Amino acid sequence: MKNLPLLFLGIFFTLAFSWVGLILSSHLNLGNLQPSTSELEDGKLIEGEPVYPIKLGGIAQTGKDVYIDQGCMYCHSQQIRAQGFGSDYERGWGNRQTVARDYIFQDRVLLGTMRTGPDLANVGSRLPSREWHMQHLYQPRITSPGSIMPPYTYLFDVQKVEGRPSEDAIMIPEGSPYAPPAGYEVVPTDRAEALVAYLLSLKVDYELPEMGFTEL
Amino acid sequence: MSADTGFTPYKSEDLSERVKLSEIDHSIRTSGLFFLVSAVVWLLIGTVFAIISSYKMHTPEFLAQYEFLTFGRARSAHLNAMIFGWANNAIFCLGLWVMARLCRNRVRHGGLLLIAGAFWNLGVSIGIFGILTGKMTSVEWLEMPTEVAPVLAFSYVLIGIWGIMAFADRKSEHVYVSQWYILAALFWFPWLYIIAEVMILMVPARGVVQPITNWWFAHNVLGLWLTPVALGVAYYLIPKVLGKPIYSYYLSVIGFWTLALFYNWAGIHHLIGGPIPVWLQTAGIVASVMMTIPVVVVAINQHMTVVGEHDAVWKSPTLRFVVFGAISYTLVSLIGSAMALRVVNEVTHFTHFTVAHAHHGVYAFFTMIMFGGIYFVMPRFMKREWPSATLIRIHFWACALGITLYVVGLSIGGIIQGLELNKLDDEGSIVYPFLQVMANTLPWLASRTVSGILLTIGHFAFAIHFFWMLFAPANKTSEGPTLLAPNNS
Fold first, then answer.
1. What is the complex's ipTM, to 2 decimals?
2. Which of residues 364-403 of B touch A (CB under 8 A)?
């Protein structure tokens, strides 16, 4: 090889080519997606109807930061595949495939590539109990025997009951090997409260013009 | 090579030629050794995080009380220590050294390289500390906090510019295939890194443009950074040690350009079935399948050069590792192309199979070639031979068996996991509850820990040997190179 200008141009354009084709084109195509009502009328939003997706707010946003700094997404995805491709629908992970519009308000998109644990795109709908999530985070094997999820005990305070038990203390079934010693209670820290608020906010319970619920 | 003198890696009969090469080696020695020491230290750190993560996977209570070691953080610390610590430092030494040798000119501004290297390692250290202490980004392959990105980008650019200057200063007329690969990689990596940092973390693109950018980046770190440098090093060392030219110059041209063209587009296969346009997924699948062209071309070229030289390969520490890596490249790439097909991806996506595949590529291919390169370059830097053939043998066997067990065990476990996740009965209901699928992966996750112990043994044997060589007084220079099998006349 002696034609060096060709080598340099080739090195430059091969990378530029894929960047334009994959990323710039996606950015032009999807970078301007707006929220929408579930159905359209004459190709326009229906006035008075709610628009989706909904922006994450308040404590749930803080909870997302906990989700991110703990690295939850290395075992949990947040994307539902179409019925017929994998078993996402049959496992009850969501009523429909997720599409690009579902993610437009997420400042960090956590699609994930592993399912060591189940998908969480719609976990707020399928597991709506705060108590369940608190128990599960404190010790996954309380709610899910045999689970290999780590216990997030450090997101909780095990403290002595002073007078009346705290209102937000989590219920641990009596006789459970994970129950605190008598006279002690397990109280979620702010981070645990935020994380559970985030998990409960994860819902794909609405339809979009381009993707309705799966009907079998 | 004449049969009666036996095998020796010192090929050049011409003394002045050897003096010249030695001068080039000497001119890059200080920064080269700095990068190698950093690489070996990061390899050990990454190994410790690897073992912790692997053990946690089947024993979730292990060290669970320490937040900084929770699985999500420990595995990310492992990945970043291995990619940005071990792999990049190894590349900075071996890639630049091969470049300097092929440019046939002593290198200048070695001090610049040393400063850049110091900042690079400082950046990676701060970054990994950030991951462990709660500043992780949860963007795959970019977990280090955004604050360190400018430090890494800046120090990298100094290193990259240095490589390009070495190329511009070359005295050789011909530009060999290794130089194209390394030159291209030096150019590609900073663009990938900077674009990904900006579009995902600094000025986040809207919605799913982020994961598209993420997988364009992450797959290209393997495809346009680790792969071309490892191929460049292999293309240099195989003919060098064997003392014969590469099988076909023409094939190496095709191999380079098809890799440059197709690997770029392949990363999207990580999002098959995901919430992105189907045509993008299809483009990723097409590119992944087209990757068979550069892979088969490189396979023919490198394996045909080695054919008939198995005795030499087995004796030479360098070639034993490099050829293991080259064979792994062929295998892992063909498996990777198959994994992109929708029918296969439906099973393997989201499972431990992907993890096995990633280690097949980064370890069995890339890392083994880097080990081989280090076995070649250290005696040139230190002007002395490796002290112990036994330690090299331990290193080779522990790592070769370890990574084979890793890939085979976790691949089987991953396929079972994928099939069980997807299995539906005649009425369309799931057959295996999720917790049962999880339980059935446990033996395979445990097999990974066993393989991890083997790899750890190999790495410690290597590190002990490396520092022994670095600090030991001069030895056995007169006895010739350290070989893994006796020269029989």
1. 0.96
2. none
Classify residue A77: in a domain, yes or no. Answer: yes
Q: Please state the rounded mean pLDDT for residues A127-132.
A: 97
Residues A124, A155 within the same domain: yes
Determine the Cα–Cα distance for residues B323 and B210; give it in Å rounded to an integer.
37
Higher pLDDT, B378 or B479: B378
Q: Are residues A69 and A36 in the same domain?
A: no
**Does A28 fall in a domain?**
yes
Sign of the Cα torsion A158, A159, A161, A167 reads: negative
CB-based contact A151 B64, cutoff 8 Å = yes
Contact assessment for residue A146 and residue A164, using Cβ atoms and an 8 Å cutoff: no
Both tokens of B301, joined, read: 């070229």
Own/partner pairs, A162-170, CB within 8 angstroms, 24+ separation: A168/A193, A170/A131, A170/A134, A170/A135, A170/A138
Nearest Cα of chain B lies from the Cα of A36 at a distance, in angstroms, of 15
- Give me the residues of A, 156-215, that contact B with CB < 8 A: none
Residue B354's DSSP bridge partners are none
Chain-chain contact of A71 with B438 (C-beta, under 8 angstroms): no
Kindly tell me the sign of the dihedral angle through the C-alpha atoms of B105, B110, B116, B117.
positive
| CB pair distance less than 8 Å for A11 and B346 | no
Q: What is the pTM of this model?
A: 0.95
Return the minimum-mean-pLDDT range out of A75-79, A156-160, B12-16, B159-163: B12-16
Same domain, B54 and B167: yes
A74 touches B: beta carbon within 8 Å: yes
Q: Is the domain of A152 the same as that of A101?
A: yes
Looking at the fold, whether A119 and A63 belong to one and the same domain comes out as yes
Report the sign of the C-alpha dihedral through residues A6, A7, A10, A16, in that order.
negative
Domain that holds residue B60: 12-174
Alpha carbon distance B273, B100 (integer Å): 45
Interface with B, mutate which of A74, A143, A157 (most B CBs under 10 A): A74
CB contact under 8 A, A67 and B138: yes
Q: CA-CA distance, B279 to A83, in Å (whole number)?
A: 19
* One-letter amino acid of A197: A
Which residues from A are below 8 Å from B265, CB to CB?
Answer: 18, 21-22
Could you tell me the residue range of the domain that residue A164 belongs to?
A: 58-201
Domains contained in chain B, number: 2
State residue B114's pLDDT score.
92
Q: Domain for residue A207, yes or no?
A: no
Check CB contact under 8 Å for A22 and B265.
yes
